[in-house]
Amino acid sequence: MTSTVPRQPVKLGDLIEGQTAAHLAVAADDLGWWQQQLYRGEDIVPTTGLQRALSKALERLGWLEPGTEGYRLTGEGYEIAYNRGFVRVATRGWTPTFQQVGVAATTGDMIPARTDPHAVARGCTDIARRHPETLQAIAVRIAGDVHPGSTVDLGCADGGRLQIIGEFGLSEKLVGIDIEAGVIEAAQQRLAGLGFADRVRLRVGSVQPGEGLPAWLDDGIRRDVTTATSFNLMHQLATESGGIDKVLGAWQEWFPSLRRLVIGDVVLSDGARWHDQPWFAPTFEIYHELTGVRVWRHEEYLDAFASLGYKVVQCFDKDHEIMVTWIAERAA
């Protein structure tokens, strides 16, 4: 778990150079450099003038150093590359919202969230994939069901989590729901290319509870789903619905055979000031305060599970102090 080590208050240089560094980190990620180093161990070899300028800038930052044929990650660079999803979400995904604040604040109490949905989807997927053992443990537990059913990922992004569950649970049917049509289209193409076309049903739609059943919920999906997963979304859904238990209760009505919940989310940190909190916590909490969304405490999730008869059987919280994933089950 990320420890809350006191940090220095943000200074002018951090403010200016930090933005530049973040943009350079995302640009390197766009080129596939971070994954090239992390997962294949191949040197980064710039081939254009812009790539050479970018690599030199990253070397000046202390994130790259000369390798055998090009550049390789330093220790500090490895930390940036490994956590690239957070950088993408904050730098590209949420920028449209922060750009509204000055104008909206003259008359409003909050601003509607505006995001780059592809940046958010990719960033969240990269965050989740930092610890494949967590998703693998979830997949193994689902695969161990005596009577396989369907797993629905509510807010499925690019379908990466469904892919891992499907690789372990060969008999498990897979369903993915996301509100962004473009994200679903990209996920469909990606999963089809991996041989999952016949096993995955992807739908465009909201997973926010409302009046009656959602339009995307057909009889087959409603009947089959036994496991519901959702990552980095519950805080928003719960704010709009009036509580975590309200969302989970609605999902239980959507899927009468539901017996397992896998919920991953960011919980409220304890630090009072930015430099008392773990990195990402200030950005996450302020972004959601501006958009009128609550960040919930760990105990509130546990209370919601218990209120619906679910017992937490596994908890993954060793990654980052504010990021927790629970597997909660109830007797059939």
UniProtKB/TrEMBL annotation:
Gene3D superfamilies assigned to the protein according to its UniProt record, in alphabetical order: Vaccinia Virus protein VP39
> What is the superkingdom listed in this entry's lineage?
Bacteria
What InterPro entries does UniProt report for this protein, alphabetically? SAM-dependent_MTases_sf (IPR029063)
Originating species: Amycolatopsis acidiphila
Protein known as: Methyltransferase domain-containing protein
Per its UniProt record, what SUPFAM superfamilies does this chain match? S-adenosyl-L-methionine-dependent methyltransferases
